[in-house]
Design brief:
Blueprint: E1 2-3, E2 13-15, H1 18-23, H2 34-40, E3 45-48, H3 55-66, E4 70-73, H4 81-86, E5 90-94, H5 95-107, E6 117-121, H6 127-137, E7 141-147, E8 151-156, H7 158-163, E9 179-183, E10 186-190, E11 197-198, H8 202-208, E12 209-210, E13 213-222, E14 228-233, E15 237-240, E16 243-246, H9 247-255, E17 260-270, E18 274-283, H10 291-296, E19 306-309, H11 323-327, E20 345-346
Parallel strand pairs: 3-4, 5-6, 6-7, 18-19, 19-20
Antiparallel strand pairs: 1-2, 2-11, 7-8, 9-10, 10-13, 12-13, 13-14, 15-16, 17-18
Helix pairs in contact: 5-6
C-alpha cells in the first residue's frame, strides 16, 4: 500500500496486488518504453529525498537499480546543494522547486555539471517555464506524468522538447502498455501496475477505480502527434454565479503574461456569487505585474476578484503547491475582501515556506 501525497485532500492508501507490482515496468529492462530507456542511462547516482514509500521515488529508485545505478540518500537543504555534494546524476523535483532552482541558478549558479536528468512531477508545468528550465539547466529535464494510483502514464524527454517545440505543451506519448480513454474530456487510464482500491474507503474507490480503469480526474486531449496534453483538473473548479470555472484554465491564461512566472487560482465562498476566483502570481525576476493587464487575460466569470503577488507559493511536505494554504484568508495579506468593482494586486503576500 502506497499513500497519495494528500495535496487535494487527506492522503489515501492505494492498495496494490503483488501481481500488479510484478507487472511494473521499472524492474524489467525489456519492458522499458523509449523515454524510460533514455532516462535509465542517466541514473548513475539517483538522489532520494524523503521516503521510498512515495510512488515516484520508489518507481525511479527501482529503475535506477535495474539500470545499474546507485541510490543516494539526500538530506536538506536539497537542490542545488545535494547535486554538488553527492555529484548526483539524477533526481526527482516538483514544479515549485524547479522554479526555485532555475531562479537560484540564474542569480548564483552552482556547479551542476554532474546532473544528467531531473524528473519533474507533481503538478502541471507551464510550457514557457519548461523552456526556460531547459535553457538554464540544459537538456536534463524529463517531464513525467503519473499518479500514485497508476504509476507512470507518459513522459517527455529533453530530446523531444528540443526537436519539436510544440511538444513543450504536452507530457509526451503514453507507452504501448498504458491504455487511455477520454470520456467527456476526462482521462481514464489502465497501467500494468495500477492500484485497485483505496484502503478502507469504498466511496472513493467506486469513484476512481471503475471497470478496470482508473479515473485520473484530469482533463486532457491528444495533439496530432499522439502526445498527451493536460488541460485542467476535473475537480479543481469554482462555481461563480453557478457558472463553472476551471482553475487550471485561469492559471494558464495568467501564466501567459511575460511578468508572471507562476500562477495559482483558488475559490473561496462569496456571499454574492457563491464562490469567487482568487489568483496568486509569482512575478518574473524584477517584474511588477499590472492588475488590469492580468485581468484582461481572463474575461467573464473567471476574472479574479483578487490578484495577489507572492514571493513563492507555499508547498506541501510533498513539495507540491499547497492550495489549501492559499484558500485560508488568514494566510493572506490585508485588505480582504477587496471592493467588488476593483480587484486588487497585493504585494509580498506570503513569505517563503519553511
Amino acid at each position: 500500500m502506497i499513500y497519495t501525497s494528500g495535496s487535494s485532500g487527506r492522503p489515501k492508501g492505494c492498495v496494490q496486488t503483488y501481481a500488479a507490482m510484478s507487472a511494473a515496468w521499472a524492474a524489467h529492462p525489456d519492458r522499458w518504453p523509449p523515454a524510460v530507456r533514455d532516462l535509465a542511462g542517466r541514473l548513475g547516482r539517483y538522489l532520494v529525498f524523503g521516503s521510498l514509500t512515495s510512488q515516484v521515488m520508489l518507481e525511479y529508485g527501482v529503475l535506477s537499480l535495474a539500470a545499474g545505478g546507485t541510490l543516494v540518500t539526500a538530506t536538506p537543504p536539497g537542490y542545488p546543494a545535494a547535486v554538488t555534494r553527492h555529484r548526483a546524476t539524477a533526481g526527482v523535483i516538483t514544479v515549485g522547486r524547479l522554479h526555485q532552482l532555475v531562479r537560484d541558478q540564474q542569480a548564483n549558479p552552482a556547479d551542476l555539471s554532474s546532473l544528467r536528468a531531473l524528473m519533474v512531477s507533481g503538478s502541471p508545468l507551464d510550457p514557457g517555464r519548461l523552456r526556460t528550465a531547459l535553457d538554464v539547466l540544459g537538456p536534463v529535464i524529463f517531464h513525467g506524468y503519473g499518479q500514485t494510483e497508476t504509476g507512470m502514464i507518459a513522459m517527455l524527454t529533453p530530446a523531444e522538447m528540443l526537436a519539436d517545440p510544440p511538444a513543450l505543451t504536452t507530457v509526451g506519448r503514453p507507452p504501448a502498455a498504458v491504455g487511455t480513454s477520454l470520456r467527456d474530456g476526462e482521462l481514464y487510464v489502465r497501467t500494468p501496475a495500477q492500484a485497485h482500491a483505496y484502503w478502507n474507503d469504498p466511496a472513493e474507490t467506486s469513484g476512481v477505480f471503475t471497470g478496470g480503469w482508473v479515473r485520473t480526474r484530469d482533463l486532457a486531449e491528444f495533439d496530432p502527434q499522439g502526445r498527451l496534453r493536460l488541460v485542467g483538473r476535473a475537480r479543481d473548479v469554482i462555481f461563480v454565479h453557478a457558472e463553472l470555472v476551471y482553475a487550471g484554465a485561469v492559471e494558464r491564461a495568467l501564466a501567459t503574461h511575460p511578468d508572471v512566472a507562476e500562477a495559482y487560482v483558488v475559490g473561496r465562498p462569496d456571499d454574492e456569487t457563491g464562490e469567487a476566483v482568487h489568483a496568486f502570481v509569482v512575478p518574473t525576476a524584477g517584474s511588477h505585474p499590472g492588475v488590469e493587464a492580468l485581468r484582461a487575460l481572463v474575461p467573464g466569470a473567471g476574472t479574479p476578484t483578487t490578484i495577489t503577488v507572492i514571493d513563492q507559493v507555499p508547498l506541501t511536505s510533498a513539495g507540491k503547491p499547497d492550495k489549501s494554504a492559499l484558500r485560508t484568508p488568514a494566510a493572506n495579506p490585508p485588505p480582504y475582501p477587496v471592493p467588488r468593482t476593483a480587484p486588487q494586486v497585493e504585494a509580498d503576500g506570503i513569505g517563503r515556506p519553511e
